[in-house]
Every structure is written in C-alpha cells, then in structure tokens.
Specification:
This protein is an alpha/beta fold. Helices cover 40% and strands 22% of the residues. The strands form two sheets. The chain has a nine-stranded mixed beta sheet with strand order 3-2-1-4-5-6-10-8-11, with helices on both faces. It has a two-stranded parallel ribbon with strand order 7-9. The radius of gyration is 16 Å and the shape is globular. InterPro entries: NAD(P)-bd_dom, NAD(P)-bd_dom_sf. It comes from Kineococcus aurantiacus. This is Nucleoside-diphosphate-sugar epimerase.
Length: 224
C-alpha cells in the first residue's frame, strides 16, 4: 500500500509512518520544514516538502499520485491562534481532499479530536478557551466537508487526550467515545488498521472515537 501522510513530522504521523514502512508499505510524508526530512528518513518515510497553507490543489495532487490512501495528521500546533486553526486544521484538510479526488486516491483518514460535537451549531462550551473552541470548530468543519464527499472513502478518528506513554496494544474504539486518554502509539496502530479497512474493505464506521481500553487493537478495528 502507498500511503501519503500530511503533517508527516507530527508525533502520531512519525509513529504511523514507521509502523507502515516496517511492514513493507511505501510511505510519503508531507512536511513544511526541510529540516524534518532526516527524521522521516529515520522512520523509513520519504519526505516531500509541501506547505499546505500555500500550496495549490494541483501541486498536492502531484504529491499524491499513485497513493492508495492519504492521512491528514497536520495541525496548527500549540501557540497558534484561531486563524491558523482554520487555515491548517480545516482548510488544509479540505485542500488535501480536493487533491486526493483529483489524483484518484480512494481513501482518506482524518485525525480529528474528541469534543468536536460540543461546538456543533455554534455552541460555545463552558470553561473552554477561545482558541481551543476555534480548534474544535476547525476540526468539525473539516469533518463535515469530508463526510459529504462521494468521491472518497472517508474515515474520521477522534482520539482522546494524547499521551506519550508506551503502547498498551488495547483500546476503546467506538463512535460514542468522548472522553479519556490514549497513547499516541496506540493511535498510530489504530490508524494503520483503519487504513487497511478503508482501502480493502469492509469500510469501518465513518466516525470513531478512541481512548485507552481493554480490547486488542486488531480486534477493536475488526469490530467497527
């Protein structure tokens, strides 16, 4: 399988890239910073420098040529304001989807976040900082755009609060998950399993929450 990961230098992305490359998949990571290419090489991932905030659809479509699946793992990151939450977490995800359709890529996995339903219909959750509300709104907007498309098999994964703990190998994967914690390494393992389902079928549930749990990853992915 040929997988292209947008935001290829992120923590989950590097773990996912290493897992996929380790089993023989061809993995390409899109990054903004040329200084990140060596880290991708160390993970077995071929890096391509591409800034999704300034790139055009045809440019990104060229990067996706021949891919079986794309993963959106990019993010504006800590310290960014509301404008960048929209330009990266929403608009860049949409640009990647446009490019995937143009390039004939069949499957798209969006790494989103638990909590996005709290801002649906313009709601403002109590006790949540304004910039995080903007982040949730950007993720929700990306989800809604992607799930409305008919030219892509779309999967949306909403991980709980992320940790750098070692992988447990067991998770709770269900549309109703809306709280908890989960190791990034377990998120990466679930992503790889969902990609297999999106590419080869049967397709999983379109929107899934993820937290630490007691079901082995392979079994959890098979159930959905």
């Amino acid at each position: 399988m040929r997988i292209v990961i947008a935001g290829g230098h992120g923590k989950i992305a590097l773990l996912l890239g290493a897992l996929a490359a380790g089993r023989g998949d061809e993995v390409v990571g899109l990054v903004r910073d040329p200084g990140h290419l060596e880290d991708l090489r160390a993970a077995g991932v071929r890096g391509v420098v591409r800034d999704l905030e300034s790139a055009t659809g045809p440019e990104v479509a060229d990067d996706l040529a021949g891919a079986d699946a794309v993963v959106f793992a990019a993010g504006a990151g800590p310290g960014s304001g509301a404008a960048r939450k929209d330009s990266v977490d929403h608009r860049a995800a949409v640009l990647l989807a446009d490019a995937a359709e143009r390039a004939g890529v069949g499957a798209y996995l969006l790494i989103s976040s638990i909590g996005v339903d709290r801002v649906r219909d313009g709601a403002v959750p109590d006790g949540v900082e304004e910039v995080f509300v903007a982040y949730l709104r950007a993720k929700l907007a990306a989800e809604e755009d992607l799930l409305a498309r008919r030219g892509l098999r779309v999967g949306v994964l909403r991980p709980a609060s992320l940790t750098d703990d070692p992988p447990s190998g067991s998770v709770l994967l269900d549309p109703a998950v809306d709280t908890g914690r989960v190791a990034r390494a377990d998120v990466a393992a679930v992503c790889l399993g969902l990609l297999d389902r999106l590419v080869a079928g049967p397709a999983p549930a379109p929107v899934l929450g993820l937290a630490a749990g007691d079901v082995p990853v392979e079994e959890a992915v098979a159930r959905v």
